[in-house]
Amino acid sequence: MASTEFVAPRTGRIEPQYNRMRNRGGTFEMSAWLFMRLSGVILVVLIFGHLITNLLVGGGINDVDFGFVAGKWADPFWQFWDLAMLWLAMLHGTNGLRTIINDYAEKTRTRMWLKTVLYICTAVIIILGTLVIFTFDPCIPGSTLEVCN
Looking at domain 28-138, which of 3.20.20.80, 1.20.1300.10, 3.90.550.10, 3.30.450.20 is its CATH number? Predict the structure, then answer.
């Protein structure tokens, strides 16, 4: 006859190969979880503000060109708006991919390499994006834009 005993859930021991968090405290993961929620809310505001000002105000999508970006980035407010959107989107996405890598990469070495590549790519994109935003110069030699004369 079969036993009718049931083990209460989550009372069993976690097998060592599945317990990746045994050496870390929960502080970092809790901070990362909280960052995802807060950055997601802020990103919604930043992205909708970006879409409304670029696509709905003025001439709409037909007015978005090099001159439009040059005029927008001449104002420090829009530089910092786009910078905040870039940084938050990149860090939000990186944190999400880090979580996916931790969940699906079984080998420690594989996880380490995947996260290393992820962090390097993130750093390069953030650095290049920041440089573009703050060093953007609409005055190309030979330009006929009014702001260059």
Answer: 1.20.1300.10
